[in-house]
Specification:
There is one protein chain. The chain has one domain (4-75). 41% of the residues lie in helices and 29% in strands. It has helices spanning 25-28, 33-45, 53-57, 67-75, and strands spanning 4-5, 9-15, 18-24, 49-52, 65-66. The strands form 2 sheets. The chain has a 3-stranded antiparallel beta sheet with strand order 3-2-4. A two-stranded antiparallel ribbon has the order 1-5. Mean pLDDT is 56; it is low at 1-9.
Length: 76
């Protein structure tokens, strides 16, 4: 409770319902499409699930989001 994400997350990486990494827009901008695809492949290869939070929330301009809100959206 009270853990707020004060940036616009792009990827939420999840393993057995535990959050592992949040990657924000600024971090993703460091990758071009090819590097981003390779990153996704590596992440999935080691068994993590990638969730695109932007599409789940259907808005990129609504931070802050609480962890509870993200969990609720993912479960639903």
């Amino acid at each position: 409770k009270g853990n707020f994400i004060m940036w616009e997350p792009v990827l939420l990486i999840q393993d057995n319902n535990h959050f592992k990494i949040l990657i924000d827009h600024d971090e993703m901008e460091l990758f071009d499409h090819e590097k981003s695809s390779l990153l996704h492949e590596k992440i999935e290869k080691i068994g993590y699930k990638i969730i695109d939070v932007q599409y789940l929330l259907e808005s990129i301009s609504a931070p802050p989001w609480s962890i509870e809100v993200l969990v609720s959206i993912i479960k639903n």
